[in-house]
Amino acid sequence: MQPKAPDATLDTFPKLLQHHVETRPSRDAIREKDLGIWQSWTWAQAAREIRALACGLASLGLKRGDKLAIIGDNRPRLYWGMTAAQALGAVPVPLYQDSGADEMAYVLDNADVRIALVEDQEQVDKMLEVRERCPKLEHVIYDDDRGLRFYAHDFLHDFVAVQETGAEFDHANPDFYECEVAAGHGDEISIMLYTSGTTGNPKGVVLTNDNVIITARNGIIRENLTDREEVLAYLPMAWVGDNLFSYAQSYVAGFCVSCPEDQATISNDLREIGPTYYFAPPRVYENMLTQVMIRMEDAAAIKRRLFHYFMEHARKVGVRILNRESVAFTDRLLYAIGSLLVYGPLKDVLGFTRTRLAYTAGEAIGPEIFDFFRSLGINIKQLYGQTECMVFICVQPDGEVYADTVGTPAIDVEIRIDDSGEILYRSPGVFHEYYKNPESTASTKTADGWVHTGDAGFFDERNGHLKIIDRAKDVGKLNDGTLFAPKYIENKLKFFSYVKEAVVFGNARDHSTAFINIDLDAVGNWAERNNLGYSGYIDLAGREEVYRLVKECVDQVNADLAEDPALGNSQIHRFLVLHKELDADDGELTRTRKVRRSKVSERYGELVDALYSDRDSCHVETRVTFEDGRSGTLAADIKIGSAEVYPVKTVTRDAA
Questions:
Q1: CATH superfamily entry for domain 13-279
Q2: 207-252 pLDDT, tens per residue?
Q3: What class, spelled out in words, does domain 400-472 have in CATH?
Q4: ∠127-131-134 over CA atoms, to 5°?
Q5: Residue 220: per-residue pLDDT
Q6: Kindly report the CA angle at 141 between 55 and 68, in degrees rounded to 5?
Q7: In terms of DSSP bridges, do strands 28-34 and 256-259 run parallel, antiparallel, or are they unpaired?
Q8: How many other CB atoms sit within 10 Å of the CB of residue 144?
Q9: Distances (CA, A) of 150 to 77, 121, 160, 633
Q10: 499 phi, psi to nearest 5 deg
Q11: 143, 117 in Cβ contact below 8 A?
C-alpha cells in the first residue's frame, strides 16, 4: 500500500509507531534470526516493548535532551532503544560496534552520553574500560547476558530487568508515556550521528525529526516504496545509511526490517529474506562478484562455459531490457533462456530474486560491476549523499542509470556548483549543527542553509546528471600542471577484483605512484589455480607472480588514463603491494572503510619516499593491532614495481 499524503502530526518516530499500531497492528515490524530461527514482532508487540523500555529508561533518569548511546550489531532491542529514547525526547547516539575503547571514549564524552544500551559482553567490557574517562556515563544496559553473570556493578542493568522496572513505572504513572510522546515535535533533535573522521576527530551531526522524517518520506515517494517492502538491516547502526533505510523509512512507510543472526551469516540470511529493497556500498557488490567468479572458476567445464556464454549475452542486452528499451525478439528469447538457466539461479544464490530496487553509494562503483548486476535484471542505482543531509542529495531516476553519474537532485534538494568546482546543496534534510562545534558548523553550513560538500563535480550537459570528480581538498596538480585526482585513479584500480584497496600519491610530484592492497580471496584463489603456494597475506603479497598480476591491472588503468588528455600525465609510474591490509584498528581506515590519506602517508612515509627514488625495494616494520586487541610488529622487504606508461592522447582541432 502506497503511503498516503503526509500527516503533519506524525512528526516524530514514537508518533509514527503509534500510527502503525492503529493501522497495521498485526503486521510484522521487525524480525531477527536467533539460533537459526526467525522471530518476529508485530507493530503492536514492538510498541509494547518500546513503551516498557522508555519507562525503564525514565526510571533510570533519562530525560528530554539527554543522550543514549547505542552500541552493537543490528538487533531489534537496539532499534527499540532508539525509539524509546525519542519517546522521552532524549537523543540516541549510535556508535560503531567494532570501534576500540579509545574511539568510543571520545564519542561518549563528546556527546555527553548518560546511558549506554549495548549488545553483549564485548561492548560491556569496553564501557568498563572507558567509564572513568566518561564521568557523565551513569548506566550501562546490556541485551545479551551471556558471560555477564558475575559482573557485579550497580550501574550495569539487564535489558529485561529495565523493562520490568519500566512496567512498574508505567503502572504507577499511567499518563507519563503518552504525555512524553505528545510533547515531541518535528524541530526536536531526533538523532546524533558521528562522521567517519577522515581528517580528524569525528564530528557529531545533529539531525532533527523533520530532517530525518521528511527526507525519508521524500525517498519513499521518489521510488514508489510501499509498506510491503522487505529490508535486511546489516550495515552498522552508527552509519547514516542504516538509520535511513533500516529505521526511518521503515517507520514512515510501515515495512518490515529483518536483522541477520550474525555478520558471518548475512549471505544466507539475505537469501532467506529475499529483500525487495536493498542498499550496499560498492565493496559489498565487489565482494559478491568476486565470490561468484571464484566459484565459476572452480565449477565444471560445461557449467563454466554456459555461465560465460549467457553472461556475455546479458552484457549485450540485459541492461537494455531492464531499461525497457527495444530489443530484438531473438535476443529477448535467448535472455529468457539465460534467466532460466543462469540469471535466475544466480540471483537466488545472491538473495536478489525479489529485489526491485537496490542502491549503492559512498564510493564510485566499477562500470563492469555495475553493469554485471544490472544485466541480471537487478535494478541497482547510484545515489549521492552525506550524513549532513540524511543521505539524499542525488538519485538516479529509473531509465536514466549511468555508471559514471550519481543522478539528479532528490525531491526538495537544490544543488549548485561554486566557482572552485565544489558542490553545494540545500534541502529539508540539512543538519541542525555539529554538536559543540560552532566553528565547523559555520564553515560547512552557510547562513542561508547551503552546505559545502567538500566534493568537486559538475553537471553532465548531455543528461543533467551530477558527476563527482573527487574530494575537493584531495584534487591537486602534478609538477607539470596536470590535474591530479587520486580518488578517481584509486577507484579505477579497485574496479579489478584482485585489488581491494589503493592509495595514490602525486600532488606536487613529477608523477603518480600507488600503494596496493590485494584482495586475499581473489588473489588466493588465483594462486591456487596456478599452483602457487603461500603461507599468508604477507607471503602472497610479496610474490613476483602477484606483482605481475597487479602490474597488469595498473597498466590497464594507465592505458585508460592515457585516453584522457586532462588526466593522461597522472599515470602511475611505480607501485608497491603493501605487506598488510589497511585496517581501521590501525587508524588507516575509518569505520566506514574510507582511507585516512594523511594517516597512511605519515605512517608509511619511508615507502612513499622509496617510490620516488631509484630503489627497487624497501624494508619496513609496522606496528599493528590484532583482532583480539593485542599489538605486535610486522616486518617485510617490500618490492617496488614499475608500470607501463602510455603516450597521452592529444586533442586535435580541425582547421578553421
A1: ANL, N-terminal domain (3.40.50.12780)
A2: 999 999 999 999 999 999 999 999 999 999 999 999 999 999 999 9
A3: mainly beta
A4: 120
A5: 97
A6: 70
A7: parallel
A8: 19
A9: 23, 11, 17, 35
A10: -105, 120
A11: yes
Strand 414-417 relative to strand 422-426, pairing: antiparallel
484, HSE (Cβ side, Cα atoms, 13 Å): 22
Residue indicated by cell numbers 525479489: 354
DSSP class per residue in 185-249: -TTSEEEEEE---SSSS--EEEEEHHHHHHHHHHHHHHHT--TT-EEE--S-TTSHHHIIIIIIH
**All cell numbers assigned to 510:** 613529477
CA distances from 651 to 87, 144, 563 (A): 62, 64, 10
Q: Are residues 625 and 583 in contact, defined by beta-carbon separation less than 8 angstroms?
A: yes
Residue ranges of the domains in the chain?
13-279, 280-378, 400-472, 476-642
- Strand arrangement of the beta sheet that strand 408-409 belongs to: 277-279, 357-360, 380-384, 394-395, 408-409
Helix (H, G, I), strand (E, B) or coil at 93: strand
Do residues 429 and 392 make contact, with C-beta atoms less than 8 angstroms apart?
A: yes
Q: How many CB atoms lie within 10 A of CB 171?
A: 9
List b or e across 367-383, with b for residues whose CB sees 16 or more CB atoms inside 10 angstroms.
Answer: eebbbbbbbbbbbbbbb
pTM of model > 0.90: no
The C-alpha cell that represents 461 in the structure block: 550537459
β-bridge mates for residue 483, sequence order: 477
| pLDDT confidence bin for 654, thresholds 50/70/90 | very low
Radius of gyration (Cα) for the chain, nearest Å?
A: 26
Query: What value, to the nearest 5°, has the Cα angle with vertex 609 and ends 608 and 614?
Result: 115
DSSP label of 131: G
| Sign, Cα dihedral of 137, 141, 142, 145 | positive
Hey, how many other C-beta atoms are within 10 angstroms of the C-beta on 276? 19
Report helix, strand or coil for 177.
helix
Of the chain, the percentage scoring pLDDT greater than 90 comes to: 78
How confident is the model at residue 362, as a pLDDT? Answer: 79
Evaluate whether 290 touches 519 at the Cβ level (below 8 Å): yes
Q: Evaluate whether 13-279 and 476-642 have a shared fold.
A: no
C-alpha to C-alpha distance for 355 and 349, rounded to whole angstroms = 13
Helix (H) or strand (E) holding 178: helix 176-183
Question: In CATH terms, is domain 476-642 a member of 3.30.300.30?
Answer: yes
By CB atoms closer than 10 A (0-12, 13-18, 19+), residue 40 is middle
Beta strands 113-118 and 67-71, pairing class: parallel
pLDDT value of position 655: 39
Q: Which H or E element spans position 504?
A: strand 499-505
Ordered DSSP codes for 605-643:
HHHHHHHTSS-SEEEEEEEEE-TTS-EEEEEEEEE-EE-
Residue pair 159/141 in contact by the 8 Å Cβ criterion: yes
Q: Are 84 and 107 in contact (CB under 8 A)?
A: no
Which residues lie closer than 8 Å to 145 by C-beta, 6 or more apart? 158
Angle at 558 between CA 552 and CA 562, to 5 degrees: 145
Q: What does the alpha-carbon distance between residue 118 and residue 95 come to, in Å, rounded to a whole number?
A: 10
Residue 297: pLDDT over 90? no
- 3-class secondary-structure state, position 70: strand
